[in-house]
Amino acid sequence: MTQTYCFYCSQVSENAKQDLKDGLSLYNSDNNVGLRNAWNIIQAEWKCCGVIGYTDWHEALKEKVVPDRCCQEHYQECGRNSTNMFWTRVSGNHLFI
């Protein structure tokens, strides 16, 4: 029973992480200001970037950028500068611990 439960928890966690990654693509859409604000708050407070890592944003936004709140030194448009240091902790670990 315990092994089945652990597998189930692991699968739920993986499915939830995938749903979060899929939702990243809505970050810049006009009708999802609440979602954008939520990601900005989470990433700023938890000092993390993306669900699995900052490259999640590259795939979701279809270019090699991240939200500015991923930057360790935050300023406007810092997420467009590939030489910046981005948070390496991931959001998914916080959500599923």
Task: Tell me about this structure.
The protein is mostly helical. It has a single domain, classed as Tetraspanin (Cd81 Antigen, Extracellular Domain, Chain: A, Orthogonal Bundle). The chain has helices at 2-23, 33-46, 55-61, 91-95. It is a multi-pass membrane protein. It is found in: Membrane.
Averaged pLDDT, please?
83
Number of strands: 0
Task: Give the end-to-end Cα distance, rounded to a whole number of Å.
Answer: 21 Å
Going by CATH, the homologous superfamily would be Tetraspanin
Shape descriptor reads globular
The CATH first-level class comes to: Mainly Alpha
Percent helix among the residues? Answer: 40-55%
Note the total helix count. Answer: 4
C-alpha-based Rg, rounded: 14 Å
Which residues sit in consecutive blocks of at least 5 with pLDDT less than 50?
1-8
Oligomeric status: single chain
Tell me the CATH architecture: Orthogonal Bundle
CATH topology: Cd81 Antigen, Extracellular Domain, Chain: A
Task: Kindly estimate the percentage of residues that lie in beta strands according to DSSP.
Answer: under 5%
Indicate the structural class.
Answer: mainly alpha
Strand-and-helix sequence, N→C?
Answer: HHHH
- Tally of separate domains: 1
Outline the biggest β-sheet.
Answer: none
